[in-house]
């Protein structure tokens, strides 16, 4: 309410008082300048916000012109009023600058806190990525040891360790998906080898599902003998070609 009084009520009162109280006196230029300075300050939202009390003092000083007896009295009143107006403007400017500094500091602190949180989040993501990569390497090594009973999709005893590791990995990293690819050597017909490789990949997929892994995160595909990594002429080569490959995404 005080601010509104300064802006919307005091200015008209001041002008009316000057017109009445000073009717017999010629206003000196200094007094006219004080009137203008007051009107300008009273319309400044920064002055209204931070120096309303000081501006009120200037208003009362200028209103006292109604009792002026001479031009010298008006000049003196104008000087005092101008000084009070200048003080109000300077106080408002200083307080505004201080508030700007506080706002800037608060913004910088907020940005710094956000940067720390972002850095911590990135560090956490990097750590999880490292853990995921290490886990994937261990799983790939374990799957290199998986064997099936010859001509079937049944795992040999003790071959499920890699599957257990993969199930644990999928449980920890919920966004990960995996493709299980079955491969065979060239023994038998290509049609039967493709069917066998698909059954072996599906067998591992089914085990993972029974361990709680969402079926939509697991793809099983059989390539049969179409993608050998070694010659099929030797038993060692054929053994390398009979494999399960894991791809993470």
Would you write up a description of this structure?
By secondary structure, this protein is mainly alpha-helical. It folds into 2 domains: 2-102; 144-248, OmpA-like domain (60s Ribosomal Protein L30, Chain: A). The chain contains 8 helices and 3 strands. It has a 3-stranded mixed β-sheet. Strand 1 (178-183), helix 7 and strand 2 form a beta-alpha-beta unit. The longest helix is centred in the middle third of the chain and has 73 residues, at 71-143. It starts with a helix and ends with a strand.
Secondary-structure map with pairings?
Blueprint lengths: L1 H20 L7 H14 L2 H6 L1 H12 L7 H73 L17 H12 L5 E6 L6 H21 L7 E5 L12 H7 L1 E6 L1
Parallel strand pairs: 1-2
Antiparallel strand pairs: 1-3
Q: How many structural units, i.e. domains? A: 2
Q: CATH class of the largest domain, please?
A: Alpha Beta
Strand element count: 3
| Count, helices | 8
Instruction: Examine the secondary-structure arrangement and name the CATH architecture of the largest domain.
Output: 2-Layer Sandwich
Task: Describe the global form.
Answer: rod-shaped
Give the overall average pLDDT: 83
Q: Quick gist of this model?
A:
With 249 residues, this protein is mainly alpha-helical. The protein has helices spanning 2-21, 29-42, 45-50, 52-63, 71-143, 161-172, 190-210, 235-241, and strands spanning 178-183, 218-222, 243-248. It is rod-shaped.
